[in-house]
Fold these 2 entries.
Entry 1:
Amino acid sequence: MERLPWELLDKYFTKRITHSEQQILDNWIAASDEHTLLFKEIDADYKAGLPFPGDFNEDTSHSWKNLQKDYAIPRTFNMPLKKLYRLATAIMIPLLLAGGIAGFLITKSLIPAGNNGSFTTIFSPGGQKTRVTLPDNSIVWLNAKTTLRYASAFNESQRSVYLDGEAFFDVKHDSRHPFIVKTSDFNIKVYGTTFNVKAYKEEGVAEATLVKGKISIEGLYLKGQNSDEFIIHPNETFRYIKNQATFKKANEVPSVVNNKTEEQDDAPLVQIAEKVDVTPIVA
């Protein structure tokens, strides 16, 4: 893969990019699915507050000369070779040990037990729909601008996928291994069924519509709710509204709602719509 246009990306995120530079960046993003996915991941990391990874000091020789000038670093210095080796060893061994321990702890905390840490990622570009067959022969249709990710140990203990976007699932029944769809807001647990999920991270509403079978929504801890699990039946749509103030519909009465006052319009809200026509949703 060729070098990423870090300088253009930096100008884009800091809102310093010119019109011509924006056109160059747009062309690079549209050049391949890989470029599109990389841009989405960098954009998500930047919005999450992670440091921007670009490095624009390509002229290392010039940078080194400036560093020598600023800090009066001598061009050469004299030290016996054996003493130099001892000094380097004394510095590097503690650093290597600390780095190795930190890397092990971070990896152990981030990688779920039972897999080797590798993931398969599928991205469906804008304007397209992508059909995916999972290792257990479950079928997933990804809508445009949707990312699906699953671990290499998918079949070993628990069938879990990570979804950002919209997808239609036809899950193969397996009573011993539940199928889990993990979104940025909640998890969906099934054993074999057909349903649609719309859960784009940047959108204010996430939905799950059941066609057949039964699913449970887990991982939402809402004030005023006696249970953190919602059971959804066929022809029902579960809707999680992240902020009520940005999503209000007239003539719509939720069947499951948080206990709230009028002053809590910015609080999350759950709705379950019954007798839904699923045809236009899964079409």
Note: The radius of gyration is 25 Å.
Entry 2:
Amino acid sequence: MSTLKLIAPVRSVFMMKQMLDADVDEVHLGLKPLNFANLSFDSRYQTVNNIPTQVETEEELLEIVKLAHKNGVIVNFMANSHYIPQSFEEAFITHINRAVEVGIDRITVSNLNAIHWLKKHQVNKPIDVGSFMAATNLGYYKFLENQGVERIGLPQGMQLDEIQQLSLHTKLDLVVTGNFGGGNVCGHCRLSECPTDLDIGQGCRSGYKVSDFKGQIMKTTQALDGATDCSLCSIPELKNAGVRYIKLIGREVPNPITTSKMCQIYKLWITQVEQGRSSAEIFKELDHEDLMWNMMWKPRFCEKKRCSYLETPVTKAYV
């Protein structure tokens, strides 16, 4: 049995079926809240570029849960907003119970209020902490253990040696994001709402012109960008460092089939690493056999040095 599990994004029954084809071990999803126009309890707007980020109804969520359980896949319910006002306690628990009633397996949160409310209202589901919690020291990890947390999403900026040290001193299962990161406190900044340029895109991923102390403009740099796009080549090292779950994000992607294919590549890599093959061998095989790898993956990630745990010009520039 594989010791390294893959967690994939889902927002609909169709997307769930695509992830089953990719042979994922677990899915993460949110549910559209009852009384919010745009916000949600899971750290993102209800739509991104007019594409839903959450399951639309409880009926569809039930169908997804049934499909998942029929195929031995765990359903992780995302309620991981990094801030929920105290006055929203009742609305939050109502939202959680909508998901619990249809059979979700785990709950991910990213603030201490949410953990307290789940325990107070006796929501008896395993609790995970998302990377938005930005927990980076052993004292914090011990505190979360004492609160009954079982798994933790590691902040983007943590390196392999730091992860390995954490795994030696915590009982928490460690989760890393396999693609598309946004900083140690991802989601806390407001760069995405920058009014100066409608085309700035994701602020932490944008290129910036920087002037030196003489006023000369330096070459455009991605100074805020941690480059966590691809961690395939580091899967053996992540496994040896104590990571037990790789989570892919992308519930809001326009084409779920593309995301499913990304999951297939991650699953292939994990499976073959656990069979004793090296990353170099898997890389070479995909070079010869996989069209998406050659047409999309290599140009987008490999050729642009968008690596999570390898030293590249982008990671060296990251502050």
Note: Residues 256-274 form the longest helix (19 residues).
